[in-house]
Structure to design on (162 residues):
C-alpha cells in the first residue's frame, strides 16, 4: 500500500540492483529496462522475457520510433511494455515495478499512462501491494510532483525496503 521511488544517478546500476532484489522475492511483476551490451532492453519480471526497446540505427528501420535526446526507442516496444504493466496491475502483485520514469513520461510518452494508472491505484490507501519506480536523481522531485505520487518514499538503496 505504498509508493517507493528508487532514485540514483544516471548509469549507477539501479536496474541491475533492482533485478537482484527481484530474484529474492515473490509476487513481483512489472518491467525493468536494463542496459545489455550498450543497448536498452525491456525485461518482463513475471515471464523473464527480454525484448529490444532501443533502436541503435534509426536509418535502418521502418518502425515508428520515439526519440528523446540522442536515443531512439521502438514505439511498439513501449506499447508491449505498457500492456505488461496493465496486466500486472490487474493481478495486484505484492510489488509492481516500473523502471524507469524520466523525460519521456514527463512529456506524456513512454510509460506515462501506465504510471498514471498505477499512481491512481496505489495512491488509494486501500490498495493492495506496493509500487516501486526508478527515477534518476535529477528528476526525482519533478516526477513525484508531476504524477502526484502522494506519500511516496524516496529511497536510494533497496535494502531500505520492507
Amino acid at each position: 500500500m505504498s509508493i517507493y521511488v528508487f532514485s540514483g544517478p544516471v548509469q549507477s546500476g539501479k536496474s541491475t540492483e533492482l533485478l537482484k532484489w527481484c530474484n529474492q522475492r515473490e509476487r513481483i511483476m512489472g518491467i525493468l529496462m536494463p542496459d545489455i551490451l550498450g543497448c536498452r532492453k525491456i525485461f518482463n519480471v513475471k515471464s523473464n522475457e527480454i525484448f529490444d526497446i532501443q533502436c541503435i540505427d534509426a536509418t535502418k528501420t521502418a518502425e515508428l520510433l520515439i526519440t528523446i535526446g540522442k536515443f531512439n526507442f521502438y514505439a511498439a516496444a513501449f506499447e508491449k511494455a505498457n500492456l505488461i504493466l496493465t496486466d500486472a496491475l490487474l493481478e495486484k502483485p505484492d510489488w509492481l515495478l516500473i523502471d524507469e520514469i524520466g523525460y519521456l513520461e514527463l512529456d506524456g510518452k513512454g510509460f506515462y499512462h501506465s504510471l498514471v494508472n498505477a499512481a491512481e491505484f496505489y495512491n488509494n490507501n486501500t490498495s493492495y501491494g506496493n509500487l516501486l519506480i526508478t527515477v534518476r536523481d535529477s528528476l526525482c522531485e519533478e516526477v513525484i510532483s508531476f504524477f502526484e505520487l502522494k506519500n511516496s518514499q524516496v529511497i536510494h538503496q533497496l535494502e531500505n525496503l520492507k
Observations:
- The mean pLDDT is 91.
- The longest helix spans residues 75-91.
- Helices lie at 14-22, 75-91, 103-106, 112-122, 140-146.
- The radius of gyration is 15 Å.
